[in-house]
Amino acid sequence: MIIDGQQVEAASGETFTVINPATNEALATFAKGGPEDVDRAVDAARRAMEGKWGRLRPADRPRLLYRLAAAMAGPAAALARLETLNVGKAISSTYAEVYSAIEELEFFAGLARAAGEAFPLAGSLQVMTQRDPVGVCALIVPWNYPIMLTGWKLAPALAAGNAVVVKPASATPITALMLAELALEVGFPPGVINVVTGPGSTVGDALVTHPGVAKIS
């Protein structure tokens, strides 16, 4: 798990093993999160929005998204191989999915440059619109397109200035954790992207019912 910019163990100390579905061989062991870990992650995301991330100029968010896209493009082949090991797909499919995530980050980096609008009314009156983040977002990622859907969900949430808690599928958590690590390396503040691994019946339920979560994707 990654909470507040740190790799952490589950509060319970429990772990689970992820396998390669093509061979049934063990790939890695991950922290088996629970409600207490969800609390920690949501709190970290809220603090990020109240702190450095929330104070960041909207014009600076696209730069970080472009950096993350570039950081993914460098090791794209390695990310695709990991996705193949974790999901059991052909490398041609996972390579395309990596680049789909990259393109989504770049698209929303460009879209994030859009500002509010002003509309003239009668006389000297004007109506102004202002775009504000909604708060902490819970991103639930299914097993079948992990890196692509993590990117698709991350990009608009981050472009709008939200902080997130990602809950990857228990069977395929590897690339979501790698994206969170890359985000830290390119300058995203700790707590902006948190990843809680574990079963949907505990982690997922705790996340989507958490009072500190403003939006669920």
Please provide a brief summary of the model:
This protein is of the alpha/beta class.
Describe the structure.
Helix content is 47%, strand content 18%. The protein has 217 residues and is an alpha/beta fold. It has a four-stranded parallel beta sheet with strand order 9-8-7-10, sandwiched between helices. The protein has a two-stranded antiparallel sheet with strand order 1-2. A two-stranded antiparallel ribbon has the order 3-4. The longest helix has 21 residues, at 91-111. The two termini are 19 Å apart.
Helix content: 40-55%
| End-to-end distance | 19 Å
Tell me the CATH architecture: 3-Layer(aba) Sandwich
Global Rg = 18 Å
Helix-strand topology string? EEEEHHHHHEEEHEHEHE
Number of helices: 8
Which terms summarize this structure?
Aldehyde Dehydrogenase, Chain A, domain 1, 217 residues, 8 helices, four-stranded parallel beta sheet, 18% strand, 10 strands, alpha/beta, two-stranded antiparallel ribbon
Could you outline the blueprint of secondary structure elements for this entry?
Layout: E1 2-3, E2 6-7, E3 15-20, E4 25-31, H1 35-50, H2 52-55, H3 61-73, H4 76-87, H5 91-111, E5 118-120, E6 126-128, E7 136-141, H6 146-159, E8 163-168, H7 174-186, E9 193-195, H8 200-208, E10 215-216
Parallel strand pairs: 7-8, 7-10, 8-9
Antiparallel strand pairs: 1-2, 3-4, 5-6
